[in-house]
Fold this protein.
Amino acid sequence: MEEMREIGRMPANAANSHRLIIDSVSAGYGDRRVVCDVSLDIPDGALTILVGPNGCGKSTLLKTMARVLPVAGGRVLLDGRPIHQTPTREVARRLALLPQGPVAPEGLRVRELVAQGRFPHQSLLRQWSRQDARAVEQAMDAADVTQFADRPVSDLSGGQRQRCWIAMVLAQETDVILLDEPTTFLDLKVQVDLMMLLRKIAHEDGRTVVVVLHELNVAAAFADLLVMMKDGRIVAEGPVATAFTENALTDVFGLRANVLTDPLSGRPVCVPLVTSDGSVAAQ
């Protein structure tokens, strides 16, 4: 049970198990390197969160993990095979990506959106089946959007729409799920609800979930493995209790802050140091 896990440690089913491995990866856009010689073992059945300042390379790394961007050096291994040398459809049956700010076509209904997650399982010889229909229903139920199934996606609130996109990813039925800024522009309560859903998907369903986030305290509250990036490199990584430190926040974000321990969860909380004139003290 969640309450029985030691704070800052990964779930037991995630220990020593790595379906997704980043091995000395460099990547970018054209001749511009954004990610530089990054190595990282992503634990199975756990929620890994990447944080860092804008432009630090966290979204680029996520896209490279998903085979959207090529590697300029190194390799990404999915189930022991280089992902960039694996056929696209095969990758899509094992790994799902939810990019930042996805947009649904006008008038598309929720059930139709979620059903798009089944495309990797379709072929000329295998059309829509009862298994596909069951996967869509289960995904909508897991994301708590069944009540919106026949409504246009555009009619929903930001948080509801994001749950629909997550349902689409769940319908893909992959063991690895990557999400880029899924909580951007959402109210704090909605962010927390979404992160609780992602943690449940990792811990209870045993899926490997990797999320890029901006919100430091939300990341500290939910991460099993926290990865801090700066200038295309990993500066700190590990359980939240050891990675989320005052020195790391200063080094990565140039932010002077106290890191306190929440008495209820035992998780660290960042409180920026504010000067007498109300400004945040920077390095």
Observations:
- Residues 188-203 form the longest helix (16 residues).
- The mean pLDDT is 89.
- The CA atoms of residues 144 and 178 lie 20 Å apart.
- The first strand starts at residue 20 and ends at 29.
